[in-house]
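Per your request, structure below.
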């Protein structure tokens, strides 16, 4: 995500951060490059002008030009301005306690990913201990109700449906059910259109009046750039929104919508869609997104991703196995599975400071990981628990079963032995910190 704009900022900072002294001319040139990067990212023109003017004003002061490290001071100014542009700090949902029903209304145009986002949000809130009910109020788009029902079953959240063409009837029935069955959260999926029209707004106004939501969230396609900002303005003026969810953020290479929304609408971005999976909805943290845009990585989000996959007991057990040289191919397969849950290799590398925007996806050997998993799954559990019994005949069978070659099987076993020995040394001699450092740097 945000690859194009990140590349531009990395180039700007590379040119100025290494200088022992900078002049007003250097600042002018760098800011001009930043302006072009923002315009190419489809950031709102007024937002670009304000950003550039405020950056120039502060960067040309004595604090920067006469500082010991002027390049770093300049980078800090741009970073702080970027965070402010994105919204300063994360804003969570304003929901009531578990004893009172909280209603969330999702709005948006057709194709913005509203229904998928409804299921993701339900999954997220369910994981936080809330009892969630989904209401299928998109009665216009063919199969919208069926789609939400399928997604609801996938995430383990019930979906309320009614045999009617009136979405207000669905909302009223869903509210009654939610109170009757002690749900504390009701998420209402509404109809959209290909474009904003009076009929759509009239219907949504009726639904909002009936639902009386605490949160009215616009789901906007981040890839539409400034168009998403214009849509947000229209929905806020005609219906009233409390925040924005940017869908398809994982596919957004430019970042124009994210960088424009808060300044133009005054409404915070609360979540971003990061994949099609049920857990592909993340809180929007302006400082972390600023770090990614500026090529500084996002190590906090990377750690949080790891914490959702690994718990402390598992980490301690893994460390003990490594120290006692009991780490097996069964454990190795388990680690591969956990890595897959954390997302793509490239998305993880982009979160590491210094690597953001610098990794060519074509050069990441994803095929090797697929082959390794296929080889491991072609082994019996007995073989994975004791790799020493895997002789020539077994290697031939494993290669045949996994669609690989004996040479690839041999390479995996050799890599496993080497990694096992190295990790044991790390754990026994330098503890967890050294092990974490090794794992972060391994391929």
């Amino acid at each position: 995500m945000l690859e194009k704009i990140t590349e531009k900022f990395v180039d700007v900072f590379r040119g100025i951060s290494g200088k022992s002294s900078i002049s007003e001319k250097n600042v002018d040139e760098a800011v001009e490059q930043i302006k072009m990067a923002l315009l190419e990212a489809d950031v709102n023109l007024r937002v670009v002008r304000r950003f550039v003017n405020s950056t120039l004003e502060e960067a040309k002061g004595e604090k920067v030009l006469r500082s010991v490290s002027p390049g770093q001071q300049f980078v800090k100014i741009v970073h702080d301005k970027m965070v402010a542009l994105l919204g300063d700090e994360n804003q969570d949902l304003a929901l009531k306690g578990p004893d009172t029903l909280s209603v969330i209304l999702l709005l948006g145009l057709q194709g913005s990913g509203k229904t998928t986002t409804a299921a993701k949000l339900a999954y997220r809130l369910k994981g936080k201990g809330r009892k969630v009910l989904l209401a299928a109020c998109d009665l216009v788009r063919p199969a919208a109700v069926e789609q939400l029902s399928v997604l609801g079953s996938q995430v383990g959240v019930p979906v309320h449906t009614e045999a009617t063409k009136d979405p207000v009837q669905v909302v009223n029935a869903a509210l009654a059910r939610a109170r009757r069955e002690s749900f504390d959260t009701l998420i209402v999926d509404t109809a959209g259109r290909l474009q904003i029209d009076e009929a759509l707004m009239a219907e949504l106004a009726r639904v909002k009046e009936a639902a009386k939501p605490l949160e009215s969230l616009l789901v906007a396609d981040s890839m539409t750039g400034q168009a998403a900002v214009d849509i947000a303005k229209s929905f806020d003026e005609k219906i009233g929104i409390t925040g924005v969810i940017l869908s398809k953020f994982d596919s957004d290479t430019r970042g124009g919508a994210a960088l424009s929304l808060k300044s133009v609408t005054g409404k915070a971005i609360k979540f971003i869609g990061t994949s099609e999976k049920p857990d592909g909805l993340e809180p929007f943290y302006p400082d972390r997104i600023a770090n990614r845009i500026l090529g500084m990585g996002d190590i906090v989000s990377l750690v949080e991703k790891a914490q959702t996959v690994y718990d402390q007991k598992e980490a301690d057990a893994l460390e003990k196995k490594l120290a006692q040289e009991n780490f097996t191919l069964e454990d190795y397969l388990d680690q591969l599975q956990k890595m897959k849950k954390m997302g793509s290799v490239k998305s993880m590398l982009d979160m590491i400071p210094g690597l953001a925007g610098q990794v060519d996806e074509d050069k990441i050997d994803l095929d090797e990981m697929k082959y390794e998993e296929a080889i491991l799954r072609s082994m019996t559990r007995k073989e994975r628990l004791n790799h020493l019994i895997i002789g020539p005949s077994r290697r031939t069978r494993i290669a045949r079963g996994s669609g690989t070659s004996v040479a690839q099987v041999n390479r995996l076993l050799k890599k496993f032995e080497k990694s096992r020995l190295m990790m044991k040394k790390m754990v026994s001699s330098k503890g967890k910190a050294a092990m974490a450092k090794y794992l972060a740097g391994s391929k």
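The longest strand covers residues 215-221.

Regards,
D.
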